[in-house]
Amino acid sequence: MQKTERSRIAILTTGGTIAGEGQSQTGGAYTSAKLGVQQLLEAVPELHDVADITGEEVVSIGSQDMSDEVWLTLAKRINAVLAQDDIDGIVITHGTDTMEETAWFLHLTVHSNKPVVLTGAMRPATARSADGPLNLYNAAVTAASPEAVDRGVMVVMNDTVFGARDVTKMHTSGVDTFQAPNFGPLGYVHDGIVTFQRRPEMHHTMTSEFDVSGLDKLPQVGIVFGYSNCSPLPVNAYVGAGYQGIVHAGLGNGNIHCDVLDALVNASRDGVRVVRSSRANSGSTTMAGEVDDEQYGFIASLHLNPQKARVLLQLALTKTTDRDAIQNYFLTY
Ligand SMILES: NC(=O)C[C@H](N)C(=O)O
C-alpha cells in the first residue's frame, strides 16, 4: 500500500518500566512510572522522522496496578482519539506485567481499523542498554505503517510485532519476554521498516460486538489457580463475594482437582459462569477432554490463557449470562 502524506501518531502513556528510574545504570532497584510523556519523547528524537507526534499521559502507574477502571478510561480515550480525522494511529506506552491483558481488552473494545500499538520496556529508562527507546521507535514505525491497518491491537517489543490475542509475557526479566507460543508473531520491525507475515483471523476491533462506551465498571471475574492438593476455598470465596464469573487456571488440558470441581459445579449451577483455562503456557483447553463442559455448564477457553479468558468473560457478561452464548464468544474472538 502506498502512502504519500506524513502519518500523525498520538502517543498515550500509562507508566511502567519504560518510564522507570533507578539509582544504578547496571541493574538493581528502580521505580516504574517516574518519567513524564515529554521525557519519553525527548529520549527518541527520531520519532519525528517517522510521523507527526502528539503525547498525552492517561495514567502513571506500574502495570501491576492496572484496573478495570483504567481499562475503561483507556478504551474510551482511544476510541475518541481514533475518531479524529487528523490521527492515523496510536502508540500506548505500558508496563509489561499486564500489557497482554490491556492489549486484549483494547482489541475487543476499540472500534477502529487504525493501528493501535502497545509497547514498554524490561529495563528502566536510566539503565545501560535501556530497551524502551528502540521499542518506542519501533512501535511508532508500526503504528505509522499503512500495512498495520486492520490488524487489531498489537504489541511491539524487541523488534517483534505480536497480535493482542496471541502475545504473552514468558520471562520475568529478559528483553525477549514477549512471545506468542501458539501462533507466532504477526511480523518484525528492523531498520525503521515493519514487515508483516499474517493478520489475525478471529473477530476484533471493527467486528467486535463489545461496547464499553456507556460502562463505568465491568462484571467481577476472578481467577483460581489449580495445583496438587488444592483447596475449594478461593472458589467459595469468590462465589460468596458475589462474583459473576470464575476462570480456572487448570492443570494440563484444563483439568480440575476433584474438591475444586465440586465447588465449581455448585457455582455453575448457581449461575456463576465458569471458564476452564490452563496454567500450561501453550495449547488449547479443548472442548472435549477429561472434563464434560456440557454436563457442568462450563466454558472452554480454548487458546486463551487464564488472564485473557478473564477479560473475555468480563466482556461476555456485559452481554449475556447464557453458557452457550459465552462459549460461542470464546469460539469467535
Ligand atoms: N517491565 C515492566 O514494565 C514491569 C513493571 N512492573 C510494569 O509492568 O509496570
TrEMBL record:
The active site is at T17, T96. Residues 8-200 form the L-asparaginase N-terminal domain. Gene3D superfamilies: 3.40.50.40, L-asparaginase, N-terminal domain. It comes from the Bacteria. Keywords: Hydrolase. Pfam families: Asparaginase, Asparaginase_C. Residues 220-330 form the Asparaginase/glutaminase C-terminal domain. InterPro entries: AsnASE_II, Asp/glu_Ase-like_sf, Asparaginase/glutaminase-like, Asparaginase/glutaminase_AS1, Asparaginase/glutaminase_AS2, Asparaginase_C, L-asparaginase_C, L-asparaginase_N. NCBIfam families: asnASE_II (TIGR00520), PRK11096.1 (NF008304). Belongs to the asparaginase 1 family. This is L-asparaginase 2. It comes from Kistimonas scapharcae.
